[in-house]
Amino acid sequence: MNRSVVKDFLRELKNSFSRFVSIFFIVLVGVAFFAGIKAAVPDMQYTADRFYDESRLYDIRVFSPLGLTEDDITALAESEGVARVDAGYMADVITRIDSLELVFRVHSLPTNMNQLIVTKGRLPEASGECVIEDSKNVDLDLALGDTIKLSSGRPDKTIEESLARDEFTIVGTVRSADYLTYEKGHTDLGSGSINFFMMIPPEDFSYPVYVEALIEVADARELNSFSKQYEHTTRRVLNQVENLGGERAEIRAQELRADATKELNEAKKTFAEQEKEFDDKIGQAETDLAEAKDKLVSGEATLETEQKNLERTLADGWAQVHEGEQQLAAAQSQYDQSLASYNTVMTEHGDQIAQLNQLSGEIDSLYQNALAGQSQMEASLQNPDLTQEERANQQAMLDGYSHLVQLVEQTNGQVGGLNNLAQGSITSAESQLASAGNALANSRNQLEQAKSKLVMAEQEGEAQFKAARSELDAGWAEYREGEAEYNEERAEGEKQLQDGRERIIRAENEIERLAAPKWFVLDRESNIGLMTYKMTTQRMNAIAGLFPVFFILVAALVCLTTMTRMVTEQRSLIGAYKALGYSNLIVSFKYVSYAALASLSGALIGITLGMSFFPKAIFEAWSMMFVIPEFLRTPQWPLAILSVLVATLTMMGVAYWATRQELQGVPAVLLRPKPPTGGGRILLERFKGFWRRLSFMQKVTSRNIFRYKKRFWMTVAGVMGCSALLLAGLGMNNSVSQVVDQQFGEIFQYDMAIGLSLEGDVEDARAEVKSFLEDHESVTGFIPVSNFNAEVDDQSDVLPLTLIVPQQTDGFSDYIALRQRHDQTPIELSGPGIVISEKLARTMGLTVGDYLSLRVNEITKKVEIKAITEQYVFHYGYMDPAYYETIFRRTAQTNGYQVHLAPEADAQAISDTLSAKEEVANVLLYKMMAESFDEQVSSLQSIVALIIISAGILAFVVLYNLSNINITERIREIATLKVLGFFNREVTSYVYREIFILALVGCLSGLMIGIGLHRLVMVAIEQDNIMFGYAIEPMSFVYAFLLTMSFTVLVNLVMYRKLVTIPMVESLKSIE
What we know:
Among the domains are: 90-206, no CATH class; 290-514, Helix Hairpins, CATH 1.10.287; 708-749 and 925-1072, no CATH class; 779-901, no CATH class. Helix content is 64%, strand content 13%. The protein contains 22 helices and 20 strands. The two termini are 28 Å apart.
């Protein structure tokens, strides 16, 4: 090639190095993002595939509800395409660590497949030893050497039905490719999710047959587990195993069907006998109780009659006593009167008698004196010596004494009569007093005797009554004891009858289940962890199919603008080359080589940086969800070569297309300056009132925008692409965040969900928890519910479903809002039919009025869909309790509560208190549920942040390049303004105003394009059990707009120096 061409090419590189660098960086950013995102998926798939192969992960898993016999395992091993079969056991159990109830899935220790990675300790070597999962998300308070105790978790089953022992010693911790994420699958125990896995020796299981079989497909290990070839290879063997399963399951079902029929007949016979025995016993017990009650009632009546008779007799006796007391009072009164009379007589006659006695004494003394005087006188008269006168005097004195004696005797008689009269009155009074006293004493004695007899009669009657009362009370106590025993025996009998009915229903369901026996033949896509990882790579592939292509298109558009401007600037030079005789190929070589060198160097460095940084960063963002040990890279030369070729050839094609238009002209035309674009009236000028109000600079800016349409569209398109990328990235972040806000803010309105333990007395557990909730001051409301871990079968797949049946539908909307997403219309739960989540309906292609196959507690029924409700996380179904009982022929028993708490409540303290109760299996807090899901989607948010940052970098580079082009192609115009005396501030505002307007139009247009791009991305990355929101929050539009305009401002600041340092003289020299 001519040396001058090469020299000119090198000179051009030196003189327009900034343009070269701008193309270099645009290609670098675009290719780095394109190749980096595209390379992430193969690297993630290669990393996982190596991990699967090193762990000898199964290709197909066979599970049979009927069990797998040795003949079944042999038949599997002999099937075409099967390289190896490992038979094993599996059981879901419950364990309690401190106050936390957890669900463990216990597997038998693998032999060939599903090899474990031991992180601590060793594998079990003897019975009673186990290894547990080494979880990277939850730190269990268990250490090597600790003993873990297991239980069945079901009230109708014991642990001995599945395991030979219930205690195991931990000898190690492991990780398994079979459990790639923290989600281990679903179960019908506890909260419905498997928390951890455990491995024990096969001999520690008590199953009579195998539960599962792991199959290694021949030649599948050499294939990429994510390739179509692997899928076809395993699908061919899977179809064969499904056909074999149909035959073998029927053979197994025939063996079990006879036993089930026999068990059903025995259950019916036993139930009939128990029912008859129950009726007989209950009838006889009711008769005996009735007779006993009649006797007791009769005894009560007799006792009451006797008591009334006794009371009547006692009343009569006490009436007589009262009458006697009245008579005694009368006698006492009479005695008191006699006593008073006696006292009066004694008072009246006592002094008289005393005076009479004294008078009598004096009379006696006088009488004696008179007698003595008489005797003396008589003696004296005998004296003869007496004179007549003396004798006469003495005779007179004797007569006087005699008369005195007679008078004294007469007086003494009168005194004696008076004394006798007084003594008679006293005697009469004493007689009357004695008579009254005797009468009083007799009355008192009779009264006391009557009282004594009455008290004795009352005591005897009371004693007899107490004895009779005691006998009756003993009879009533015996009756109540008999009644309680009757009620207890009746309840026990009814419970036994209900158990019998349930045994009959289970036997009928078992026979119904055996009517269509089958194996569940599952590939790796049925494993929730493996499928989650595969879906993650698919989502990344979807992102890689949209964003990077958009990046490349924007970069290509800007490069087209750059190369077009470069060719336009060197139009006269191209004419000179042609005039000198250079061919079009030689002339175009300079520009094509310029673009090729810039794009090739940018692509090579972009490939190196992008494929080194992005796959590792993306894997690290997702790694918190998975247990893959380390990130591995796989050589991706086709992608690298393709990325370099696409970038280079695109830029070369753009350069050639830009040069080709000028090369069509003749040298004479090319050597002359290109005539300026013709002027004309713009649209704004037609609005004369508005146009007149514009300043000169505003009018110039308006004419420039509408005059240079190519510049307008190139700038607008570049900014529009960057703005659309920013809005799509921010919208992705909104969609991910909206899931938490909508699901756990507006739809799930309760603060706490309580799951009851099914071990022990469930009724007591309900009563205990209900009492706690009713009494706790921080609980503002609660509702009892029945939660079931159900499955929905759509023929091609089985999807897990959480079925919620509230005990009453009134008020349920205060805890879970059932509504239609488009118009927020509330959905009424009461009545027949099931309400399902929108994501489940979309996944299965169901609408209102369709029927779905619902499996609950191993019973499968067809139920009609009555409504579809807005839900974003997992699959839910809601059913009226009466409809559930109609469909499944059993009552939905309460096994949980949804609880409202006061705003100031300490939810964690309440949760800890409830978790410590044996009656509580688990407690889920709304806040923890939201945080848990936030952790799940945080990896996706990291990817979104990476996209937003990359889009921001691209936006800056694009805006810088477009601004640089804009300034460069207008350098003469800007120099003219400076010559005319415009200050730097006026010059920059003149240029910036136009750039701002173009950026504003491009930004607003990009926001509209970003809405569609965001929806495309969200549809592409949506998961099976998560429905992302499609609404972009208003602030995201604001942020995207502000970021784009901020980059515009930043670019203008960077370009300021170039504007103010434009050489006026050099720039205004004639092009000729």
